Amino acid sequence: MSDTPFGFGLPPEEPEDGDEGKKKDPTGGGQGSGGPANPFGFGPGAGGDNPFAAMFGSMNPNDLGAAFQQLGQMLSYEGGPVNWDMAKQIARQTVSQGTTDGSKDASVGPAERTSVDEALRLADLWLDGVTSMPSGSVTTVAWSRAEWVEASLPAWQQLVDPVAERVGLAMGDVLPEEMQAMAGPLIGMMRSMGGAMFGQQIGQAVGVLAGEVVGSTDIGLPLAPAGKAALLPLNVERFGKDLSVPQDEVRLYLALREAAHQRLFAHVPWLRSHLFGAVEAYARGIKVDTSKLEDVVGQFDPSQPEQLQDALQQGMFQPEDTPEQKASLARLETALALVEGWVDAVVHEAAKSRLTSADALRETMRRRRASGGPAEQTFATLIGLQLRPRRLRDASRLWASLTDARGVDGRDGLWEHPDMLPTAQDLDDPDGFVHHEQLDFSELDKMLGEAAEGDTRKPSAEDRGEDGAGDDGPRTDGKDDDGR
User: Is-contact 217 120, C-beta < 8 A?
Assistant: First the structure.
């Protein structure tokens, strides 16, 4: 069985320029990640190779009734490409089991809520001096892991459904049209099982991720409702456990990152749809190996639903190697790198003179991202994309250079339109982008404004190039129209 669910292979590691360029460990879990090697897999504590273990538990006889009830729900599911009710159920069960180090979820107390609220508000105050974007946080919240699951599932649905939709369409296309009517019940059952299997894997992944994330923007995408800045106190404590850094500083640094993300997504109105649209465009380029799917359909035994699970994990779905798909991938990777790089740059500027451990916390966060922890690994296996840490560091350096060269307003002004942002080529040559001549749109705006005004007034004789209202053209005898 493949280590990467849905058959997605991860690109090879690339060393970081000027950095150590850490390699992931062979298990793919990342150093210090604390999560399983494959967040979509079913490793120790999740039932081994049994795809129903996370849902059915240890199969205690007393639980068999509930287990078969859930199996019935899988077979009777008639919704979209992913059974999101099952995903939520599995995610909450995974959260309740705790993390591999024995950390259990717990309700957030009043003192923790107060600490999170104060940290996020202070973070916003510090950010006022390093970015021209005003606060994007309407409310501040402190979440338990289970609350994070509930709040983030709508965003996961928007990310995952385009990928899962490709599976559902393929299941209906593997049989000749004249046979599809006769095979209707079988195809329907396959789709129900596919939705359930996706739901189970997504639920398992989100549940694992809930034990690691410290806020709502850990993967560079906004997973929480707009304007809601969030921290998870239990995970914030785990993040700083072995850092020898005061807990207040850890909390404040992570609050700065959360608040910076909130500003960016709140005041760059096209950014959210741009990122999710890039994910959807990438998903549209996923190719389904119909020959493998035909084998599954032809041999599918409803009494052995794990066959479909095996098929999902044996390379059935692969990104197409086309110019369009490569462009979609580059667009998505670059956009995510620019978001993360901007946040890293402005947070460092705000924290370096106020937090004694700012440099250490920054490096810890960078290494956490570079090591391929559960956040990055989940996203990678989810849509077949592996973020490149080198790109994140390059983007951070570029934004810092832009601040020095053009000031805060000049730097942040690039977010006004996606066409103004640096490209992947600019990340390769940040100095070239920073110091190239800036386009001045003021004269163009003036000309467009004058043209718009001209359309609303009656043209004068002078505008028409005429001396009078007649059609005989200008006089050439030096006299006016009255003969004087």
Answer: no
Q: Residues 317, 289: contact at Cβ < 8 Å?
A: yes
Cβ-contact 381, 8 below 8 angstroms: yes
Q: 3-state class of 255 per DSSP?
A: helix
- Two tokens at 373? 């922890």
User: What are the structure tokens assigned to 177, written together?
Assistant: 């049209």
Spatial contact of 138 and 115, defined as CB atoms under 8 Å apart: no
How many CB atoms lie under 10 A from the CB of residue 364? 19
Task: Tell me the CA end-to-end span of the chain in Å, nearest whole number.
Answer: 101
Q: How far apart are CA 427 and CA 431, in angstroms?
A: 9
DSSP type of residue 478? S
Per the CB < 8 A criterion, the answer to whether 27 and 368 are in contact is no
Q: Coil, strand, or helix at residue 318?
A: strand
Nearest-angstrom CA–CA distance, 103 and 429:
44
Q: Are 343 and 119 in contact (CB under 8 A)?
A: no
* 286 in Cβ contact with 317 (< 8 Å): yes
Over its length of 484 residues, how does the chain's per-residue pLDDT go in tens digits?
334 433 333 444 444 444 444 444 444 444 334 444 443 333 334 444 444 444 444 455 555 555 555 555 555 556 677 889 888 999 999 999 999 888 999 999 999 999 999 999 999 999 999 999 999 999 999 999 999 999 999 998 888 888 777 666 655 555 556 555 555 555 566 666 667 777 887 888 889 889 989 999 987 888 989 999 999 999 999 999 889 999 999 999 999 999 999 999 999 999 999 988 887 887 777 666 666 656 655 565 555 555 555 555 554 555 566 777 778 778 888 888 899 999 999 999 999 999 999 999 999 988 887 766 555 565 565 555 555 556 888 899 999 999 999 999 999 999 999 999 999 899 988 888 998 755 444 454 556 666 666 655 555 544 445 444 444 444 445 444 444 4
